[in-house]
Write a structure and sequence with these properties.
The protein is of the alpha/beta class and about 900 residues long. Helices cover about 45% and strands about 10% of the residues. The protein is built from 30 helices and 22 strands. The strands form four sheets. A seven-stranded mixed sheet has the order 7-8-10-9-11-12-13, with helices on both faces. A seven-stranded mixed sheet has the order 15-14-16-17-18-21-22, with helices on one face. The chain has a six-stranded parallel sheet with strand order 2-3-4-1-6-5, with helices on both faces. A hairpin with a 5-residue loop joins strand 7 and strand 8. Helix 17 runs parallel beside helix 18 and helix 18 packs across helix 27.
Amino acid sequence: MRRPGRGELPAEVPGRDGLPVLSLIGDDQEGLAEQIARALGAAEPRRVPHEFVDVDTMRREVRDERGSDESAPDHLPPPWQRSELCRRMLVRLAAEYSSARNGRDQRVRFRRFGLVNWLLEMTYTAEEPNSQHAQDMLRRLRDREIQRRPLLGFARSPSTEVALQGSVPWWAYLLGLHVLPLVWFRAWRVLGSEYRWLLRQPYMAPGDPGTFDGFALRLTQPRWGREDPVQITKLMINAFLEDLRVAYRRRPWRRRAYRRTAYCVAYLKGVSESNDGRALVRTVAQVRNETGAFDPLLIVTSCGENDHDHADVVELDDELGPYETWCESLRTQGRSRTVDFWYLPVKVSAPLPESHYGLARQRVRNSAAARISVPRPPRGTGPLPIVGAALTALLLVAAGIGYAIAGERDWQEQHCGLSRSHQDADTLVRESTGECVGVAPHGYAFGSDDGSVKKTLATIAEQNTEAERIHREVPGRPLVTLVHLSALLSPNGEASGAQSYAREQLQGAASAQRRQLDRRGENDPVLRIFPAAAGSGMRYGDVVARIIERMMRTDPTIVGITGLDQSRKATITTIGELTRVGLPMVATTLSADSLDDHSPLYYQVSPQNRREAEVAAAYAGSLAHEGGLKARRVRVVYSADPTDEYSRNLRDDAVASFSGADFAVEEQPYTPSPSSDVTASGQPGARSVGEQACHYKGLVFFAGRSEDFETILNAANDTCGSSPPVFLGGDDVARLGADPSRRGNYPRIPYEFLDFTLGSASCNGPSDLYGTMKKLFPEECEQVENTSLDGHAALAFDAVNLYLKAVGRLQDTAPRMPITASAVWQALSRIHGDAALDGESGRIDFGGVVDQQIPLDKLISIQRVEGTKRPKQVAFCGRWGSLRQGTWCPEPETGTTRKR
């Protein structure tokens, strides 16, 4: 009965498990039973689970209760009386093995046998069941399962129902007390271990319809269904033994299985053929042979010396002990075992009389045999180690959860506060400045609170989804993706005036996308626009370029870049990184002279600073000639920020152009606003420059950034608002003109600025761009009196259409060629002459020269701001349909030489 620390008995025969049926043969059965009971109960360090059954007494009870009156409805014929005897015997053993007297950690839960026994006890007659029998069986089984679960039982108790009536909503009452228990019961009938085992076990299976309901109905009326009582008996025995097997099966998560160091003992007193005890023991042996599974049950039987049928009975005085003899038989038997193999018959001598010489020796032997010791439970399986292990596990789980939560929080913080489920999260990152940069194809607004920006990005995301749908429905229309890269947001993530021009650029790109999606040609490409933000001053453009590179590995439809803001060194770095990635670029507002020197993949739709300075000098000469200037002098104001390539380059070009136009030129650097990367030292601030401009009699030409120009206007307004100087700003000042909330702050200071479009568009005019914007963004047209519609949308619209024109020419000249970034780059250079783009911002013609990446003679207009009104065009230079440029404009550009 002692269980080994590893494996099962017999440990002497590796790979062969089994416990014999110990048959004690002797006439002193009462004394023998008393002695064994006392020894098992006094075992050290704790009692052995055991139960004694008087087979004769239990057989008489069955005969008297169920077999005496043949007319009684619960009468059982002899074969069924034997099955009933087995049932009662197993119930008694189960009650003992599951009792608390064996210790809480040695109690056995009889789920399978309990279910089988409950079904067998449901009816007692052999009569045909009524039509409601199946429903009654399931209802009673459901109530049984609910009552066995404390929580469900409490919820379904009458007191709980009364307490909840009127205290909770009717739907909660119905759901908690009726629906959930029913759903749980239906699920448990499929998932419960006892239910699943009942359908897999081998007995009664041939007639089983394959469902638990059908099998359970057979068990509730076995006699009416003419079931085999032997099969019923074997089913009960197998269920009982399987519950024992599960309880003793060692698993890492089953602490109690390791603490079971002694097998259960069943003592059957007075086993004989007449009381069916011998037949039941043979049935147990048959089940062991048929299942081939080890069961942790030691069956001990007793009978008189003349009431057994064993051929070989082992004497306790034999040289080889009885158990050793049986183990040797187990070693030689192999896998083929008969029923008789399981028996280990042992002759037990009767107590010797007082005068017998061997009495003392017998008493010593009996005393030694009565001292039973079983192994102590292994260390680490007791409650304290388990509690410690559980607490450690909980701490580890809590730490893991905390680490996971912290990791998820850090991940979300690194990805602009978005969860992993957000479609844009993987292509966005938060930089050290707090700015959110990356690519957002699905409408994320990069942390902006500007409602117009959010709506614009949401519109683009909806059109992207529509583009994908069209491509799925019409695979012949190729999918083309452009990334619109801009600064978009200020460092703190809040809306700034710069967002007005960025928003209009996105609206221009969205309008071009909308017009392309509305085409119905079978081969017309469908366009997606992926908005991207590189942070203020384009400082994280290289980071975004690497994100785009990663996206291209899974999305080969990305063929080009539009946008790009501010001619700074960071912008040049971004251009270099995009060149490494292999993507062509079409910039919208960049104008520094040297940008095309940094990459053969770079194009732009705006003129260069050199041309802008020529136009500015020519216009200033016209003003001086007409008396608009008190002196032919010009003060070129520029940023002292060494990283601002635009301001430095425009200053050099302006100095050269104004000097060539016979102006007296002086240069005035200023310290840029704190938002700049590098703050120059030793130079006046923008406010001081504005104050010093008040008494200047010539032209103040501003070659810096719009936010600094606003500071200069503020200072001039405070100092000489009644008699302001003449201001002419570079194209970056158009950002201020695009923002109605900013440009009206200084109504006493009129100023002019250079722009790359006509700036006089109307939503009601014959314009491809603004006619589409009227449908997509009607609120922009409703504010047309205040908003500028100043050309940023037009530049972005033209940049996108430049790509679409290149793709269209590819389809015409090489219809089988895949639309790739390199193919599109080659097609861009061929846009000139008759193939030039007649865009919303003017004619875009690259001149047909191999290295010409700047449009020739591109339109530049002079816009004037007075008070709070939208900018008004004064004049323009360049090609725009049949309109004539100003007579004062410089000579047109040609493609015979590269312009610098």
